[in-house]
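To: structure desk
From: M.T.
Subject: fold request, one chain
Message: Could you run this one when you get a chance? Sequence is below, nothing fancy, just the single chain.
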Amino acid sequence: MGGELKIGELASRAGVSRNVIIIYEQRNLLPCAGRTQGGYRLYRVEDIERLRFIRQACSLGFSIDEIREVLPEPGAGLAECRRVRDRLKSRLEEMDAQLARMRVFRRTLVAYLEECEEALTGRRGNACPVLFGISRPARRRSKRWPHLTLRGKEVSRGEKGAKR
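Reply: Done. Structure tokens follow.
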């Protein structure tokens, strides 16, 4: 049996359950397994790395369809490699844009935390400034949160003509 693994061994070595392997096979993320005369599934050793990649991609938020797009078919040539490369580049650009939005939102949360700390130490009235700041119309928000939306437009610190 050398280069072939039964489903339990593959699951153990790849760090997934047997059910996950069957689901991935049904969704065409894994090549269909061969069968023994007794009907047991037989997988290739290469499927271990493929399963690990799928698991990691899922944990990073890739959908099943996105994973299918970047997984080359076994024995794929350079045309397939170009397609995978292009999809990976596109996904990286999407992730970079999402990270930028997350950094902006992180700054917002840090500002909110500072406002809460000031309120809780008695330096800022007796109401939660975060709830007050969130409930105010965008055009009247504090200068302290310049990265928040202003009339439906994202505004950053140095932007000219931005009314606060």
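Reply (cont.): The beta strands are 4-6, 34-35, 41-44, 149-150, 153-154. Let me know if you need anything else for the meeting.
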